[in-house]
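Title: Prediction job returns without error message
Component: structure pipeline
Severity: low
Priority: P3
Assignee: unassigned

Description:
Job completed but the reporter wants confirmation the result is attached to the right record. Sequence as submitted:
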Amino acid sequence: MVLSVSASYLPPAHTSLTPSEQKLTAVPLTDAAKQALANATPAAIYHPSEEAKAWVGEVQVIETWVGRSQSPEFPRLAEIANDAMSGLKGSFEEFQSTLATEYPDLASKKYGFTVEADGSLKVLDIAKELSASDIQRLTELLNESSGLKAAASAFRDASIDMVDADSPWSGSYLGRYSLTQENFAKSIDLAALVIPKGTVPNREQIDGMFFNQLAAKGELATRETEAAMLQRRAAQAFTAQA
């Protein structure tokens, strides 16, 4: 079919109608139709004298926290954290080598460690195979290693900066968590971070990755924790400028 569209006026083919000679005759209702009409009732009756009543239901207010966007500084801070992890890995390997030479009984046992808010190192009995004396000796040896203590604190602070710079809903999603010096020890096992990884990581290595540790043990961020973080960051910037 071909349609032609034109803007010009086309007159109709017929300008008048031919009258019909057929007459219309009214047909009376049948008895059944009359009965149906008599029994019919209106669906609703409106009385204009009555005041219209508006229905008011219960109002529910739902607040949604979206959170911050990823900072432009995130790539730089992530690189700093990655370098800090490399330093931590080297320091821990050196510590393990010394431990194997001087205390082979301790070196053969599986343990983790983390860093407290005051910078001291804490032993984690992750395999439940350490005695009280083992934990005490390991704690003393870890804290006597000034290089390992410094590397642990450096990584902790760098990773906190990285998490603070990320977003809860975009980027690497690290902003979903609130990581501070106070809760770091409950969230991250530093030994698990530096487990040697092969071509195909096993379950232990995967669980030890930074993001996976945060997802398993980290504190979820809230509107309040984000506000506290931003306030802390503002105070740090003010101190740095002073």
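Comment from assignee: result matches the submitted record. The mean pLDDT is 87.
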